[in-house]
Amino acid sequence: MRKFCLLITIAFLSSCAVFQPKHFTQTSLNEELLTLERESISFKKILKRNKGKKIFVQIFATYCPYSQKSFKDVLSFQKKNSELVYVFLSVDHSYHDWKRGLESIPVKGQHYYIPKKGKGALGKFLKLKTIPRFLIIDEEGKISVYKSSKVSDKLQNKVQ
Question: Rounded to two decimals, what is the model's pTM?
């Protein structure tokens, strides 16, 4: 009986592997976002524009207090890692809320709005439940950090 319980425990623990994809799905890449000028652009095209560069991605909302607090850390990270491309994806309630909220955001980079928020293909792929969320995408377009809820040493180590 003891061996049986041990086997069940091992099987359970091994099935709890963390989902850490290295590539975006085609459907997540095809999700349409909006630019500051309200033009439609696919996530794939955003990545293609930045091909060959490491990309720091933050998913946030301008109304979210946790997102607002994170910008101080992002600014510090930007100063230490100016060679990175910074892409900010907003899940604000509306395009107009996002545009209005950007006035108080101190970080610089490429800003886009996700109209479908966490319910679209990109949000589902990322299992987007909470914000802020940070990702690192390497020069080849592979995801090197899939899920981080704060700017941390984990992110810093992946960009060096």
Answer: 0.87
